[in-house]
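Deliverable D4.2, example record:
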Amino acid sequence: MKFINHVVVLLSLLFTSNTFALEQKYHESVLPVIAAFKMQDKTAIAAHIRYPLKRQYPLPDIKNEAEFINRFDEVFDDELVAVIGSSNINTDWDKVGWRGIMLNNGVMWVNTDGKIIGINSHTAKEQAFAKRLIEQDKQSLNSSINTFEEPVLDWKTASYHIRVDDLGDRNYRYAVWSSDKRPKDKPDMVLFNGDITFEGSGGNHHYTFKNGRYSYILHVTVIGCDTSPPGWLEVYKNDEQLLKERVISAE
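Output generated by the structure prediction step:
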């Protein structure tokens, strides 16, 4: 299965190498993380995670240390553990504004408190798990929208249930129901040919779908603070904003 991580794709285009050495004041945050991976100490690594650790939908987020240790081999294979454990504090890590400290081209992100806040890669084991979840996901949907290559978003706001799916080659489809309906119900609206726009180097991005004079924009938070929502929906008529709602549930 082609399990695409849009964040990694973007970052690989933005950064070919880190040209600035990590400031000395951040070494004390990163060095214990490197040491934990060098020792391959799952318990120590788990203590360096900021929970919940987000995984790309349809993979469930990792909620706590016990779950992280149980799912460790899904998230990290031997190659990735070795890359992190052998990384050079002076050449492989870089501070990227407010977003945090990244390893290489954004493979992993750490905040200034030494907590891992993002892992932007997928092992073969995690990809296989995702494939099984996608097949289950398709069975839960109305027959009019249960054909796609990859699910992208499954969100709920106060008023709506929203899905975005990739039909293949980044051909994005938007489906929306009122909050009182089920996924098995026919969507209230389906739009095609959505665009994706990345917002800087942290991976935050948004999808835009057009319907005549109306625009539906889904902002996705990849790197944010502890209180950041998973994202939010904005609806515009021409340039006038008609709606802005935070995501209150993200699968």
